[in-house]
Amino acid sequence: MEKPENRFVSVVYQLYTIAQDGSKQLEEQTGDERPFEFITGFGVALDRFEEELMKHAKGDSFDFTLEPAEAFGDYVPEGKHQLGREIFTVNGKFDSDNIYEGAVITLTDNDDHHFMAKVVKIEADSVTVDTNHPLAGKRLNFTGEVKENRKATDEEVQHLIKHLTGGCEGCGGCGHHGEGEGCGHHGEGEGCGHHGKGGGCGHCHH
User: Fold this and answer.
1) What is the extent of the structural domain holding 25?
2) Are 118 and 104 in contact (CB under 8 A)?
3) Distance (Å, whole) CA 153 – CA 175
4) Does any domain span residue 161?
5) 20 to 30 A Cα–Cα from 36, which one of 59, 94, 112, 169?
6) 26 lies in a domain?
7) Reduced to 3 states, what is the DSSP secondary structure of residue 123?
8) Number of folded domains in the chain?
9) Cα separations (Å) of 148 from 60, 91, 114, 175?
10) What does the pLDDT look like over 139-178, one tens digit per residue?
11) Would 112 be classed as within a structural domain?
C-alpha cells in the first residue's frame, strides 16, 4: 500500500469543550498572526483532527466535534498520584516558586520519559498531581479556517524530523495518557509510564 503523502497544514481555530447540557466553553484559540502549523503523518496533531482537516482545502471553514475517545480519552482517576513532598525540594527547601496548586509541571519517570502533570493539592508531607490531560473526558468542538493545505516539501519534512528528535522547545501544551504507580520529579520516584499528544489539537509529542 502506498504511504499517504505528508501534508503541510496551517489553520486558525477555536477550541470549545461541550458540556452535557450542550453549552460550549472556549478553551483556546489561535489567530492569523500565529496559526497552528503542522505536517501530517508524524503524530504532531490528533489523528482525528488531521483526518477532519484533510477534507478541507485552503480557504475552507471547518466545524467538527470529537468525542473523548477520538481526542484525549476518558478521565482516569488512577492518573492522580500522591508524591512525597521531599521530591520537590531544591537545596533542602521546598520549591514553592514552581510547585503550587494549579501549576502545570514536567515530571520524569525512571525511563527518562517526560510528561506533564497538574499540581492539585499540597499537604505537609505530600504533593498530589494529576497526569490526566486537562481535556480528558471532554467532547471537543473545533471551528476555524484552513490557511494552507498542500504537499509538504522534503525540506519541511526533514526540518520537522530534526525538531522532533532534538526536542520540543516552543511547542504548545502537551497532554499525556498512561498507567503506572507513582511519578518521578527530575527522574526521582517510582516509575510511571506516560505518553501522549497534547495541546487542543496536539502541539507536541513526547
Assistant:
1) 7-74+137-171
2) yes
3) 28
4) yes
5) 112
6) yes
7) coil
8) 1
9) 9, 49, 32, 25
10) 999 999 999 999 999 999 999 988 888 754 433 333 333 3
11) no
